[in-house]
Design goal:
By secondary structure, this protein is an alpha/beta fold. Helices cover 27% and strands 21% of the residues. The relative contact order is 0.10.
Length: 506
């Protein structure tokens, strides 16, 4: 499942496996070479820390069979190009692949902003539910009747906000701590609903070995907590006595159904070194591959890249269409060319050159020319570019913009579908539901789906007798203020009416 083993990292050597697992690659290849069993590979989505094409190329001699999610938009093109169709099984949401010795069921999360999947594997009388970083927390009730022996889920962040955005120290720490806690609560609730015998924290965090990003490894309230930190929080803040929390390191082995654990030695002394000592040893090991990567781009001409960028931004404008709901302009610049921007106006469909940001309200991004060059050459997807964390962004006022996130995250040929998905969400929100506060019995009529990425709010929880919490990403809507997003009220679940309070419901 999502094998990420190569030593070159992901997102142009911005992210690396933590703890290091490079030492497992060759033993795994040797084991596959000597195996007489059929090889099945599940890939959840195309992020480079899950979709390791370098490693996938090394298993081609073993005739792998791929289990892939059937997204609406095209995906996994390299697999489809280099492997015969008989070796690839695409599964739609909730669809099952049954084989003599196992079955696999896929769960898909897809919106204009994101596409991901989770898998339920059942074999030899045991079940393994791997949510990975697929945030289907709004669908947990659909899974609670399934006996889950082992449950894994991502507990850390994987986004450029607030890391790449301009904030003062206090603002940054507050936003990071809030996101971190929301993630912890989501996974804790999933454990509580699913009641697995064993929980294993997984799919995070990465570590950052680039000199410009190295500081992120030591942000003790940031969105990249370690497995140890999350398990400590679980033990201190929850009472999940029916679930055994297990911390596995790369190469450790858990045997089912008896639950025995075999511990293995870790590279660079992970178990007995401080985090800083460990990461410095890790960084020294892979420094040559990082240097070779960046040497390639020393010849990048920022002026040429800036001019080429205009065509890409114009193409994106055409594909996304005229947008009236976002009246802020986007300013796009390069690190190497200070005070020079392309100003993108979606309402007028224009991209014009400017030397200054002329509005009080705006959205801006500045990025290194060599990475923009890779995107323009289609060596890198726009979303991978964003996840490298090498850009600096600012938004004034500090309110979330679905449109500018779509614009920056999606390749031009994906934008039309992404905008159409937002319109589909608008139509779905003609459906309303009633939500009731369990402590006050107060009842509100609201849109059924979250305006962010369409999470179903049927099972959303209410905090402090007024705030509805989206189960997928933790967005907080104030039901006593029309259902508006708090603290930034540019989105709403649109409270249609406050229904009469029934004091018999408590």
């Amino acid at each position: 499942m999502d094998p990420w083993l190569t030593s070159t990292g992901a997102y142009d050597a911005a992210w690396f496996q933590y703890p290091c697992n490079h030492h497992l690659e060759q033993p795994l290849l040797d084991r596959l070479k000597n195996s007489n069993k059929s090889l099945y590979v599940y890939l959840s989505h195309e992020h480079q820390d899950h979709y390791d094409l370098e490693f996938i190329s090394k298993i081609s001699d073993f005739n792998p069979n791929f289990i892939l999610p059937q997204f609406y938009t095209k995906a996994f093109e390299s697999i489809a190009q280099f492997y015969p169709a008989d070796n690839i099984t695409y599964l739609a949401d909730r669809q099952t692949l049954a084989r003599a010795d196992f079955s696999a069921t896929i769960f898909i999360e897809e919106s204009g902003l994101n596409r991901d999947s989770a898998i339920l594997l059942q074999a030899q009388g045991c079940s393994f539910l791997n949510l990975n970083d697929c945030k289907i927390f709004d669908r947990l009730n659909d899974l609670k009747n399934i006996k889950v022996d082992v449950f894994t889920a991502q507990f850390s962040g994987a986004t450029w906000h607030p890391i790449c955005y301009k904030y003062n120290v206090d603002e940054y720490r507050s936003i990071s701590a809030s996101k971190r806690l929301r993630k912890f609560k989501n996974v804790a609730r999933a454990i509580d609903v699913l009641q697995p015998a064993i929980f294993i924290p997984s799919a995070g965090p990465c570590c950052f070995l680039d000199n410009d990003l190295f500081y992120l490894n030591f942000d003790d309230r940031g969105i990249f907590p370690t497995s140890e930190e999350f398990l400590d929080w679980l033990n201190e803040n929850t009472k999940l006595s029916d679930t055994h929390n297990v911390h596995l390191l790369p190469g450790d082995r858990l045997t089912l159904p008896d639950g025995n654990i075999e511990i293995t030695e870790q590279p660079f002394g992970y178990r007995h070194r401080s985090k800083q000592e460990y990461l410095l040893a890790y960084e020294r090991k892979i420094i040559s591959s990082r240097q070779s990567l960046f040497t390639r781009f020393t010849a990048t001409n920022p002026i040429i890249i800036f001019q080429q960028l205009r065509h890409e931004l114009q193409l994106k404008c055409q594909e996304i269409g005229i947008i009236t709901v976002e009246d802020r302009y986007l300013y796009f610049g390069l690190n190497e060319l200070p005070n020079l921007f392309w100003k993108v106006n979606l309402q007028q469909q224009t991209v014009s050159e400017t030397q200054e940001i002329g509005e009080l309200d705006f959205y801006s991004i500045v990025a290194p020319a060599w990475q923009v060059e890779k995107v323009l050459n289609r060596e890198m997807h726009w979303e991978d570019f964003c996840l490298s964390f090498r850009s600096q962004l600012q938004r004034v006022p500090d309110t979330y913009s679905i449109i500018w996130n779509l614009f920056l995250f999606r390749n031009p040929d994906e934008l039309a579908w992404a905008v159409a998905s937002l319109k589909t969400l608008d139509r779905k929100n003609n459906t309303c539901i009633s939500v009731v506060c369990s402590t006050t019995a107060k009842e509100w009529k609201i849109n059924r789906y979250c305006p962010h990425q369409g999470a179903d709010l049927v099972n959303a929880q209410i905090e402090d007798s007024r705030y509805l919490i989206c189960p997928r990403h933790g967005w907080k809507f104030d039901l006593e203020n029309g259902g508006r997003l708090t603290p930034n009220g540019n989105f709403s679940v649109n409270v249609k009416q406050l229904l009469a309070v029934d004091r018999t419901r408590s």
